[in-house]
Amino acid sequence: TNKQVVVQPFYRIAAEMEKVVIGSDHGGYDLKQELVQYLESLDIVKQVNDIGCDGQRVDYPDIAETLANTVLTENIPGIALCGTGIGISISLNKIPGIRAALCHNTYTALMCRQHNDANVLVLGGRVTGSEVAKQVVHTFLTTEYEGGRHDARIAKITALETR
């Protein structure tokens, strides 16, 4: 169909952020801890909501559900981690309204924001170095959604949630 769809972007610029939510399973715990410290050092983030885990074994779908609920109810960006990032990505993307992107470098972080208006960044704690992860997080949080030609694609993604 050729319906005109208006897409409300998740957030336009980092200056609109007050808060970020972050969570991991045990496989992403060590990197999450480093990223919490990094996020707290950034001027663009005023509050970091760490939803766990605390290093204990936990199932990533449980973290995904809690993180997604926070992203959607508070309209804030999320950062999710598990060992590879794959399991928590799959879990997150089952939840309507979530556009989670597993990123391995700054280019994928840039594109997931500019073209896909991703609202959750996913990283693999066992496969991503901490310095790369910090660069990816910064890119994700400071990149604006372009809108325009991408709006129709986002609308199609959203329509898939009701199938």
C-alpha Rg, in Å?
15 Å
Write the H/E string, N to C.
EHEHEHEHEHH
Span between termini = 16 Å
What is the topology, as strand order, of the major beta sheet?
A: 2-1-3-5-4
The helix tally amounts to 6
Structural class: alpha/beta
Query: Overall mean pLDDT score?
Result: 92
Query: What is the count of β-strands?
Result: 5
Shape verdict: globular
**Beta-strand fraction estimate:** 5-15%
Low-pLDDT sequence parts: 1-5
- Helical residue percent band: 40-55%
Largest sheet, strands/sense/barrel: 5 strands, parallel
In short:
The protein is an alpha/beta fold and 163 residues long. Helices cover 41% and strands 14% of the residues.
Your description of this structure?
With 163 residues, the protein is of the alpha/beta class. It is 41% helix and 14% strand. The protein has helices at 29-41, 60-74, 86-92, 106-114, 130-142, 151-160; strands spanning 19-24, 47-50, 78-82, 100-102, 120-124. It has a five-stranded parallel sheet with strand order 2-1-3-5-4, with helices on both faces. It is globular.
Attribute tags:
single chain; 163 residues; alpha/beta; 5-stranded parallel β-sheet; 6 helices; 14% strand
Ordered list of secondary-structure elements with their pairings:
Layout: E1 19-24, H1 29-41, E2 47-50, H2 60-74, E3 78-82, H3 86-92, E4 100-102, H4 106-114, E5 120-124, H5 130-142, H6 151-160
Parallel strand pairs: 1-2, 1-3, 3-5, 4-5
Helix pairs in contact: 1-5, 2-3, 4-5
